[in-house]
Amino acid sequence: MEKDKIQRHIADIYLNVVGWRAVEALIEIGKPAVPYLIEVIKFSRKYEMSTQGGRIRASKALGLIGDPSATKALAKNLGDKSTDVQYETVRALVRIGKLAVPHLIKALKLRNADNRYSVVSALGKIGDPSAINALSKVALKDKVWKVRKNAGEAIKQIGD
Fold it and tell me: I want to staple 122 with a disulfide (CB 3.0 to 4.6 A). Which of 79, 94, 100, 135 is the partner?
């Protein structure tokens, strides 16, 4: 029965009207919903129909469930064409924590400065010292001053 319930909510996740209610229900179900949410990300990325909303909602749900098994699927979202998908993915990876750090370090190369800023903030919030070297490079070399400044603040946050 739980599988049927999950599949019904997964079908709804693509719909703007009921998609967020589906997310709430899937979060309540928790870990059993994770493989289905990962499939939403894979499917919608593969077919790139107008499924950006599905990727955003699936990323949010995975982050709030906080299951580390979603890290790899979420990390692939960091290269998404949609900056909204990238942003929600960064938030999800912060909730997962230290397992996400290597993926976030790779995401420091994203084209969108606002998303690089979010990645830098995420690394500061996670607080893993293994990110300091990458953050130092960003603090010295990023093209956008607010990203450089935020990288310095993230390094300080990790050091505290």
Answer: 94
